[in-house]
């Protein structure tokens, strides 16, 4: 064997488990495995999980905060306008440099798969070329899936559809859209129809920014579910944001959720950004804005969390830590029961892996040996602590590691200096 991890705790609650790895894949999982390996890691009861997966991100904009100016209002619309100001100034070199830096951050935090939307409304397609280059460079250690995203609207921007088709031909993986940003509700619905038909013809997945609005009458998710079912694209389509659902009438939502479930459409919430950008026109009480995560889950719909933005025109914070995303998500959704908190951990690991269609993801024999050893004993404790990543493993090779979090205490009236593990209960 190439690598043996001893005494691991698993996300499903199993403890004292060994994981044997050979040839870049998991060979065996069990208790007290009688194997010898070239390298051995004692997890010491810590949680071993498949890597974190970010189902919704914008890597073409990441780390551009302050260029060409700061979003003074902090609103979604000023962010979109600011991105429009920045686009003419973009260079491939700068786009690649910022994206590569972010990928380094991601790996250090055990984030080894990212779905990134890339704006295709710039006729030069500079960002597309840059991120395709980044995708090839990071492929040995990070899966980067790209979405052709018509930021300015598929029908609102005259060349958007042609550019989207060009981007797909260049190697972009997923068809994106933004129906609520079209000029009318009718044009928004038409954009969904056109994009879904194009994706179905090409055999591609779809991920649309959908109803990122406080307007309860923004109901494009219904149209997306309809065309998904009409075209037989069950399991291939996701609606991102869905924040208008936060404000919709409860009776309408009771009809909407079964439609989404029957169509096999997944939901991707972005807790950090949804609660930052939504509710801006409210006085008090202010709406939180994030979509109805517990209700979606109860309806049997796959729900993932995305980071969305890190230091860009829309969000001045962020670090690539999906545990921070899960932590915020469970607070906003009031998911503080044990099973609910575990579901939030799944929303940044297994569920987005399924939405992205990642092959070989998991902890069973035959899966890729892509693992993270966290400085925590369970999924709930990992979220509570935003636990350190002791080891990040890609195809059986350790690609990042850090020491356990601990402090040396010297307290008056207490025993002599002692080391204290910061992940203690």
Tell me about this structure:
The chain has 13 helices and 18 strands. The protein has 425 residues and is of the alpha/beta class. It has an eight-stranded parallel β-sheet, sandwiched between helices. α5 links the parallel β9 (174-177) and β10. α10 crosses α11 (338-346) and α11 packs across α13 (379-385). The longest helix has 18 residues, at 185-202. The model has no long low-confidence stretch (mean pLDDT 96).
Tell me the number of strands: 18
Helix tally equals 13
Give the class from helix and strand content and strand pairing. alpha/beta
The major sheet is characterized as: 8 strands, parallel
* Cα radius of gyration in angstroms: 22 Å
The helical percent reads 25-40%
Q: How much β-strand is present in the residues?
A: 15-25%
Average pLDDT number: 96
List low-pLDDT spans.
none
| Apparent shape | globular
Distance between the termini: 35 Å
Strand order of the largest sheet: 6-7-8-9-10-11-12-13
Summarize the structure in short.
The protein is an alpha/beta fold and 425 residues long. It has 13 helices and 18 strands.
Protein traits:
425 residues; alpha/beta; 8-stranded parallel sheet; 4-stranded mixed sheet; 13 helices; globular
List the helices and strands and how they pair.
Blueprint: E1 3-8, E2 17-22, E3 25-30, E4 39-42, E5 47-49, E6 52-57, H1 76-86, H2 92-108, E7 111-119, H3 126-138, E8 143-149, H4 160-170, E9 174-177, H5 185-202, E10 205-210, H6 220-230, E11 237-241, H7 250-263, E12 266-269, H8 271-277, H9 293-298, E13 303-305, H10 322-332, H11 338-346, H12 350-356, E14 371-374, H13 379-385, E15 389-394, E16 397-401, E17 406-409, E18 418-421
Parallel strand pairs: 1-4, 6-7, 7-8, 8-9, 9-10, 10-11, 11-12, 12-13
Antiparallel strand pairs: 1-2, 2-3, 5-14, 14-15, 15-16, 17-18
């Amino acid at each position: 064997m190439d690598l043996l991890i001893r005494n691991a705790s698993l996300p499903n609650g199993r403890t004292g488990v060994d994981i044997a790895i050979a040839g870049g894949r998991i060979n065996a999982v069990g208790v007290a495995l009688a194997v010898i390996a070239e390298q051995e890691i004692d997890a010491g009861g810590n949680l071993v999980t498949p890597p974190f997966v970010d189902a919704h991100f914008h890597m073409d904009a990441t780390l551009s905060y302050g260029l060409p100016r700061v979003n003074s209002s902090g609103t979604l619309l000023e962010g979109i306008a600011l991105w429009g100001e920045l686009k003419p100034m973009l260079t491939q070199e700068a786009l690649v440099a910022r994206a590569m830096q972010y990928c380094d951050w991601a790996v250090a935090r055990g984030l080894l798969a990212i779905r990134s939307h890339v704006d295709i409304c710039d006729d030069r397609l500079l960002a597309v070329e840059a991120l395709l280059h980044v995708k090839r460079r990071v492929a040995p250690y990070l899966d980067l899936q790209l979405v052709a995203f018509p930021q300015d609207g598929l029908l609102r921007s005259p060349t958007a559809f042609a550019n989207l088709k060009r981007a797909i031909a260049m190697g972009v993986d997923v068809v994106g859209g933004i129906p609520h940003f079209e000029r009318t509700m009718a044009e928004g619905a038409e954009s969904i129809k056109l994009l879904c038909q194009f994706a179905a013809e090409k055999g591609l997945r779809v991920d649309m920014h959908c109803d990122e609005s406080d307007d309860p009458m923004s109901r494009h998710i219904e149209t997306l579910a309809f065309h998904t079912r009409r075209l037989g694209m069950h399991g291939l389509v996701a609606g991102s944001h869905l924040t208008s659902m936060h404000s919709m009438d409860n009776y309408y939502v009771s009809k909407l959720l079964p439609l989404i479930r029957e169509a096999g459409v997944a939901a991707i919430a972005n807790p950090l950004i949804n609660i930052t950008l939504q509710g801006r026109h409210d006085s008090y009480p202010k709406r939180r804005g994030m979509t109805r995560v517990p209700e979606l889950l109860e309806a049997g719909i796959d729900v993932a969390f995305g980071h969305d933005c890190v230091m860009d025109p829309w969000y001045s914070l962020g670090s690539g830590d999906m545990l921070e995303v899960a932590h915020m998500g469970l607070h906003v959704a009031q998911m503080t029961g044990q099973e609910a908190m575990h579901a939030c951990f799944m929303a940044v690991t297994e569920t987005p892996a399924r939405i992205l269609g990642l092959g070989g993801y998991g902890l069973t024999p035959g899966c890729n040996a892509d693992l993270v050893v966290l400085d925590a004993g369970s999924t709930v404790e990992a979220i509570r602590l935003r636990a350190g990543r002791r080891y990040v493993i890609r195809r059986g090779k350790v690609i990042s590691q850090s020491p356990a979090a601990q402090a040396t205490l010297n307290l008056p009236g207490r025993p002599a200096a002692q080391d204290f593990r910061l992940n203690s209960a």
